[in-house]
């Protein structure tokens, strides 16, 4: 049995329109050990751009919900099969909600399309912008397609009563927490789901002292050129530590067992847009570029087959160069890199670490 509460934020997001009913978005908020997921904060920002009320849905076990509402701690992760009847109930015919919003997370990818299909309405995924027309209750979204090589414009017309969409977190700033903001808390009756076909057993979280990959301002990524897991760790981790950066990996490195799949950057991994992205030994396959090409500064270091030419690294206290290191000087990653360096990563990285420590 699941219990839930939703929080209605009326002070920050409330606007009224004289010509049409104001939109009312329901945001599926995900929490982990008392900390709101950064992607959910971006989803709140996107929901606020609709120009109406924003309510947040917090879901957990019956023994955890009170603590979740107050401190967002010890949240339990129900399966989509168990959670969808609850969300479907909230969005019944008498529902005030016009939009359902979530971050583009694994949970949302399973939950929102399931509920949208039950309600016979479409769902738009991974949006990067939106515009709501309050006059006729239509919403226009843009979303990347073909691994980010094209942008599709999708319009949800007034005939769609509830508009489901997920948000790419890198496209929206995180919602700011404001002291003293008022929010009404309402309890929702639990929904009993007998004979649920799946059950959540446990959640394994990779713990690290480094910044979270999805929100880090600096990222150091490695590819298949790093040979094995030991070389991957010995080469990337010291550089990441001195930069205060998160560690990422290409799909090839993850598939080869060099890094955990939670570190994968790309179309089938995490989409990041840090201030600094360093790609070491990454050729730049299209699925990897889709996950990092929006980074503010991208530098590529690539090793030619025969070269012993020296290289220069310009460092200052205010500017850090983004470097990509690959085995092919004509690799596709140079097409998106702001700075490219032809060199051996096993020579470049130790010298870079030494200069950063000075």
Protein architecture, described:
- This protein has 358 residues and is of the alpha/beta class.
- Helix content is 23%, strand content 27%.
- It is built from eight helices and 18 strands.
- The protein has helices spanning 38-48, 65-71, 80-90, 106-118, 229-243, 251-255, 286-292, 345-357, and strands at 2-9, 24-28, 31-32, 35-36, 53-61, 99-103, 123-127, 129-133, 138-145, 150-156, 163-167, 183-191, 218-222, 246-249, 276-280, 298-302, 324-326, 339-342.
- The strands form four sheets. The protein has a seven-stranded mixed beta sheet with strand order 7-11-6-2-5-1-12, with helices on both faces.
- Helix 3 crosses helix 4 and helix 5 packs parallel to helix 8 (345-357).
Overview features:
358 residues, alpha/beta, seven-stranded mixed sheet, 18 strands, 23% helix, 27% strand
Concise synopsis of the structure shown:
By secondary structure, this protein is α/β, with parallel strands linked by helices. It is built from eight helices and 18 strands.
Give a topology summary.
Elements lengths: L1 E8 L14 E5 L2 E2 L2 E2 L1 H11 L4 E9 L3 H7 L8 H11 L8 E5 L2 H13 L4 E5 L1 E5 L4 E8 L4 E7 L6 E5 L15 E9 L26 E5 L6 H15 L2 E4 L1 H5 L20 E5 L5 H7 L5 E5 L21 E3 L12 E4 L2 H13 L1
Parallel strand pairs: 2-5, 2-6, 6-11, 7-11, 13-14, 13-15, 15-16, 15-17, 16-17, 16-18
Antiparallel strand pairs: 1-5, 1-12, 3-4, 8-9, 9-10
Pfam family, one: ETF
Subunit structure: Heterodimer of an alpha and a beta subunit.
GO cellular component, one term: mitochondrial matrix
